[in-house]
Design a protein that fits this description.
- This protein is an alpha/beta fold.
- Helix content is about 40%, strand content about 15%.
- The protein is built from 16 helices and eight strands.
- Strands 1-2-3-4-5-6-7-8 form an eight-stranded parallel barrel, surrounded by six helices.
């Protein structure tokens, strides 16, 4: 995948993507999402460059080959460590290296990276150049449209211009400001107002760049509206909580076929994956099952099915046995206690 691997009228590699989400988009989550869409670009959680370099390389970079195309998102603010982490990421086979300039958490702020980097565009430019010098895959940047309550368009325009001068040609823009004071990371996802028009203005001012939009997008209508104006759409929480939406994306946005699997077949594939992970790495199945709890989102019986899979009292049973209980509970008429599961075991974990 390269920045110039598409031409006018063809699909950008960044046409549809799933956002990097801390504690959510681990490799198990990405394996699940890949069952639903073959073409959507997947992102890792943000990984600190130092953690990769200093002894955590395999733990942080291991992924399943089925995940391609998959991008590694890095956190950091020093060209040297970021370049080394990018080199390792490319060596492990990631299709893209992304620099996080949007996370507003206190921990990230204390490290002077994430969204706080937007106040230092020359630092970001130096980091991008250092990474591009050592990898052949795209180096991209994900950022906000502003910091705190400063809504001056010139701020984000100049940030993008400076970083683009260093060779970055792909910008994924979360269409909210990052309020570094007074809001939690969760509140930063909801309270600062969405301003999609700022992202569209960036594309107008930098037509040669790839500009994708992120933030609050939950329906096909909004996706289609944005794709008519921009090069890509990144979906975050809605993709996680309502994953069956992804099953239509290849057909809707790539001109391909929808997911050929039924929900039941996706669940069965995940159970097989849980067994493989347990045998290979000793991974407890609840670490994997938590990512698929939205598979039956909004369907009758979904609540009890979800309760079985998230029940901590079942965590020591084999995944396939829990799968049978969940399947039985879902097939049972009405919202009564699943057959074969004692009343004391039906509370959600």
């Amino acid at each position: 995948m390269t920045e110039d691997s598409f031409s006018p009228g063809s699909h950008s590699p960044w046409r549809m993507s799933i956002a990097p989400m801390m504690d959510w988009t681990d490799r198990h989550c990405r394996y699940f999402h890949r069952l639903l869409t073959r073409q959507t670009l997947l992102y890792t959680e943000m990984v600190n460059a130092g953690a990769i370099i200093h002894g955590g390389t395999e733990r942080h970079l291991r992924f399943n080959l089925e995940e391609h195309p998959v991008a590694l998102q890095l956190g950091g603010n020093e060209p040297g460590p970021l370049a080394e982490a990018a080199r390792l990421g490319a060596q492990w086979g990631y299709d893209e290296i992304n620099l996080n300039c949007g996370c507003p958490s206190d921990r990230v702020q204390r490290g002077a990276f994430g969204a706080s980097l937007m106040k230092a565009p020359m630092v970001v430019a130096d980091c991008v150049k250092a990474m591009k010098d050592v990898v052949d895959v795209p180096v991209t940047v994900k950022h906000r449209i502003g910091i705190d309550k400063n809504e001056d368009y010139a701020f984000v325009r100049d940030f993008v211009g400076t970083v683009a001068d260093a060779g970055c040609t792909v910008f994924i823009v979360h269409a909210r400001n990052a309020w570094l004071q007074g809001l939690s990371p969760k509140e930063n996802r909801d309270i600062p107002p969405l301003r999609y028009e700022v992202v569209r203005q960036l594309k107008n001012d930098f037509p040669h760049l790839v500009v994708a939009i992120n933030g609050g997008i939950q329906t096909d209508a909004v996706v289609q509206e944005q794709l008519a104006l921009l090069d890509g759409v990144m979906i975050g929480r809605e993709a996680y909580h309502n994953p069956w939406w992804l099953a239509r994306w290849d057909a809707l946005y790539y001109g391909g076929q929808p997911c050929p699997l039924t929900r039941e077949e996706v669940e069965e594939a995940m159970v097989s994956y849980m067994e493989q992970e347990a045998a290979r790495y000793g991974t407890p199945w609840p670490h994997i099952a938590r990512h698929m709890l939205g598979l039956r989102h909004s369907l009758p019986g979904a609540r009890i099915w979800r309760q079985v899979w998230s029940n901590h009292l079942l965590k020591d049973r084999p995944a396939r046995e829990v799968h049978a209980l969940a399947k039985e509970s879902y097939a049972a008429p009405g919202p009564e206690t699943p057959q074969g599961v004692p009343d004391s075991m039906t509370a959600a974990g």
